[in-house]
Specification:
single chain; 739 residues; alpha+beta; eleven-stranded mixed beta sheet; five-stranded antiparallel beta sheet; 27% helix
Amino acid sequence: DAAFAARSDEAPAESVAVSDPFVGHRVSISGLIARPDLNGKVGLVVDAYGESRYTVYVDSVDTPETIALRPVNLRVLNPKADAPASDPASASRRPAYEELRQVQWLPVLAAALIEGLPWRPHSPCVASPDNTRPASDVWLVSFCAHLLDGEVSSRFVLELFGWDKPPRPALLCAQLAEVGSTYSAEVGPDEAVLLEHCIGPIYEQLQQIVGAPEFSGVKAALSRRATIWTGPERGLLPPSQVSFDDDASLCRYLAVAPPSLSPFRTLLVALGVRESSFSADDFLKANTCFVRDYGSSAPLPEAALQECVLNLRLASARGLSPETSPVFLPDADGILRPSPELTFNDAPWMPSAGQAGTRFVHGSVEPELAERLGAQSLRQLLLLRDKFTDTFPCPSSTQIQEALAGFGHESNVLLDLLEVADVLGAKGVHFCCDRRLHPSESLLFPTLVEFQGPALCVFMPGVALTTEELCLLHQHSADRWFKLRGRTPRFGRRFASAYALGEVSGLVSGGQMFLCDPSGRYLPPGASGRAAEEADTGAPTSLPVGRVYPLVPGDLPRRFPDQFAPFSMFGFDALSGKPLDGTILRLPLRSEAQAASSKLSGEAWSATRLHGTLTEFRSRAQTTLISLETIEAVSTSEWLPDQTSPVRTLMVSLSMPQNDASQRGAVLHDSSWKKSGLSSLFNRGKKESMLVFDLLEVFRELKEEPLGEQASGEEEESARETNQRLAAHSSSFFSASSS
C-alpha cells in the first residue's frame, strides 16, 4: 500500500502514445491449429512487435505462459482501459497493473469469520486481487471470493482493484444461492443480523438493476434456487414457492413473504414471487417435494408428516384433482405412496379380519380427504372384492324431469305407486310415513348419510321384482304396447313419480336391495368398464347410477347394518339372512338443502307434508280400491321417532261374494255400462247383473301438532282421546252393466 502511495506521488513518466487496439487488454483466444488447447482461454496482451504479432500472457491455464499470436486469433474482452482514472501513470503502465491484478500475492483469510455463513472451500494463503474482496464484504462474498487479511486505506489501491465499487451481481447471486442452500436456524446467523448484513444488502443492490440487460443473468441464476427469505422455520425458498398474498398456514415448501421483504417487492416479483394466492398445482408440486426429500421407502419424521398432511388439506381445499397427476399420501407407517395404492378406513365398525394385505392411509388423513385425493374406500373395496355389488340401468335426471312435468296433485305419487302394485299383481299395499332418524355410521357410502331421515315406505307383500322389471317400471312412456305380467299401466309415470318426493330410492325385493340415483350425485358409478376405474375413488358422478346388492346369506347386511336398518319393518329383518316375501320401496324425503341444488325437482318434502298427503288420501281410498284389479287392501301408518312400532292410521279392504270373485276388474275393463242410461235399471225387458263390493274402512286420526310434544293435565288427556279416536264404515257399491 505504501509503495503504491509513493508511486502515485512521483512525477509521471514520459508517456508513450499507444494506439494499438490490443496492447493492455484482456483477450479471448480462438482459431489456433498448432495449439488447440489454448482455444477459448483468456490472456493479457502485454506487448506488440512487428506489424502482426502480439505477446499474450495466458493466465487461465494450469501453467501460465507467454505466447506470440496474430490479431486474427484475438478478441478484446474489455475494450475500455482498466487503469483507474486517478492513476498518474501513462498508458504504458496499464499492462503492468493488469498483470498485478492477476498474480496471486495478496494475503487472504483462511478461516471463516462468522459461524453459519458459507465459506469458500480450500482457501489458500494468497490470492489475486481480482479474486479478492475487502474483509468488510464478508456478508456479501464469503463463499465466492477470498477476503483480504488486512486493511486498505489507499484510494488509489481501492480503485485499482475495483474495491471502491460493490461486488459484481454474479458474486451476489452466488452468495445468496449458497446461503439459501446451507442456512440452518440451529447454526445461525440470527434472523435480524442476516437480513441487515447479508440478504437485505444483496436484495437492495440487485433491485437497482431490475429492467437492465444484465438482470436477465440474475434472474436465470436465482429464479429456480432457494433465494427468498421466509423466516427461520423454512429459511429460503425458490421464488415460485413464495407468495405476497396468501392467508393459508402453509407447509415448508410454500410460504408467505414476511413484511420485512416489502421494500424489495419489485425485485422479488421480477424473480417470480407470487402476488396472488397459490393454486392447486403449487400444492401438488409441494407434495412431490416431500417425495423428493424423504423418498418412498422410509417413514416421514413426525414434523414432516404433519406438514405433509397440512399440505394435502390445503391442496384439496384449492381444488386439487388426482386425475391430473398422482398424489402421494402417507400410509399407516408414514411412508409416502401413490394414493390409488392406499385405502382409507371408512368402515371402522368392521373387524380387521379379512383386511390382510390392505395398505391403509395414515390415521391423520381424514377419510373424506383421502377419498378426494384418490385413495380407495374400504367399503367399496370389500364390495368389489367380494362381488357384493352389481349395476342396473337407471333413468337420467332429464328423463325424471320430463316424467314429473305437469305432475299435478301431490297425492298422484300414491296413486301411481298403487297402479304399479296392481300391475305386479299385489293383493295389498301398505304406506308408512317413517319419521325416524336412523343411524348413519355403517353405510355403504358416506354420501348416503343424508338419506337416513324421514321417508315414505311402501310395502307390497307377496310381490318379488326382478332387475328387468324394475328397469321397465322406471320407464315413464305411456305406450299401449307396454305390458308387465300381462297388464298395461294406464298413466305412464310408474316408479318415476317416486322422485317427486326425493333424490334417491331404495328397494328391497326378495333377496336383493336396489339403490337408484338418477342425478348421479350420491352413489359412485358402476363397476364395469371405465366406470370401474372411477368406482375405485368412490366419487359420485353426474351420470345416473343404479346398484344391486345381495341380502342372502346376510353377510352384507351384517357388515353395513345401518344401511339396512330402515328396511326392518313390515315384519322383515335384513340381518336374518332370509329373503323378503314381497317388496319394500323406501323414498327418503327431499330436504330443503337438497331441493336447492336438485336436478330432479325443486320441491322439498317434510314429514308434515307427507302426513297431510296420507290424511287426504283417505277420502279417495275407497273409490281408488274399486278401480284396481288385484289389490284387496290398502293401509297407511306413521312411525313416530320415539316409538318402537308404527301406528296404523287407515285400513281399507275390499271383498266380493265368492261366486263373483272372477269379475274383479270388470269396472275397469268393461266400460259398456257407461253407455246405459239410468232407465235401463228399471227396464224389465233386459236382464241385469250387479257387481257387489264390500268395503271396510278403519281409520285413526293423528293430529300433527301434538306429535313429539309433551302435554300435561287435562290437555294431555284430551289430546290422547283425539289421537285415539277410531271410526269404522261399511258400505256396498253397486255397478250395473248391460246383459
